[in-house]
Amino acid sequence: MKGSSKEMKANTLKIWSAVHKWTSLVCTSFLLMLCLTGLPLIFHHEIDTALNPDIWQPANPDGAHLSLDAILDIALKARPGEVPLYMSFDIERPVINVTSGPTPDSAVQNMHFASFDMTSGALVPPANRGAGVMDFILQLHTDMFLGLPGMLFLGGMGILFLIAIISGVVLYAPFMRKLPFGKVRRTQSSRLKWLDYHNLLGIVTVAWVSVVGVTGVINTLESPIIDTWRATGLKDLIAENQGQSELVQRASLSLAVNEAMSLAPEMQLQFVAFPGSDFSTNRHYAIFLHGNTPLTKEIITPVLVDAQSGHVAGLREMPWYVKGLLLSRPLHFGDYGGLFLKALWAMLDVLTIVILGSGLYLWVKKSRKFREQVKRGVSV
Description:
Layout: H1 2-42, H2 44-51, H3 68-77, E1 83-89, E2 95-101, E3 112-117, H4 133-143, H5 147-176, H6 190-204, H7 206-220, H8 222-231, H9 233-242, H10 253-263, E4 268-273, E5 284-290, E6 300-306, E7 312-315, H11 320-333, H12 338-379
Helix pairs in contact: 1-4, 1-5, 1-12, 5-7, 6-12, 7-11, 8-9
């Protein structure tokens, strides 16, 4: 009975070992690419600022800001015959962005985007952030220039990575039980030394790589998640208010925004979708608010305000799966705790590169050793 139990345990370990080896081998090259591109992306904002310093200054830095209605009027006068579609707000500068088009259901290629100085109403030149090398790195990291199929493929690699992590944790105890924790056999063969480094760094960083792996997989599902929300939660909110009469005269946007923000004074304004656009009804302003902390700034809440009367028509909390997506973004890059947390994320990213590289090294060494043994066996 004892022998049978030992044999079962040995077979189980063999299965877990095979799972760890093959899941790791399949995803390692892609994980190395993600780690290498993810390293500069942790400091995306800082690198962008250094490469493309923003030399623009508001016309009246200490002056009062123009109302949203005044900015909207300026934007529409510059585009006669067009209607407003969206209005968004720069977090760091007193700048408002207005998107307009020939009709409320205009295609993306027919939309016009312009930025305006809130202190004067003058046009603001593009900040040119995200262009060049950082844009290339971000695109490579996100979908390898393949769009949604690339994102889903990387999500699959992320799932394999998570399986490799779980199998590695399962194997750690039985394979390292005879060695004290943190022991590295430096005086023995290079393969044993790197095996110890691989195991030690893997178990030390397991919590971090798990968080980054899970949030990375969630991020690859961004398009399906947003599409699901638009087809369910947002559609339900719109349907509840869509049956009302067509808009005759648009009420003050500033007053509508104030009405929406009075429902959630702890939140900040993110963007406005105008009547007839994809994110609103034919009669309402859809006003999207977000949190005011580094972590909750990604959580948005839509509020519908009647564009004729200016009264709030409905507020809808985001479903859990959208909140999970929005929270996964800052968690993935450590973008919620300042420069110290980014530096910690970068250090752990480098350690993960070492883990992945050492895993490949160990496999190559083992394969080479096996081939040499086969050759010796054949020659004998």
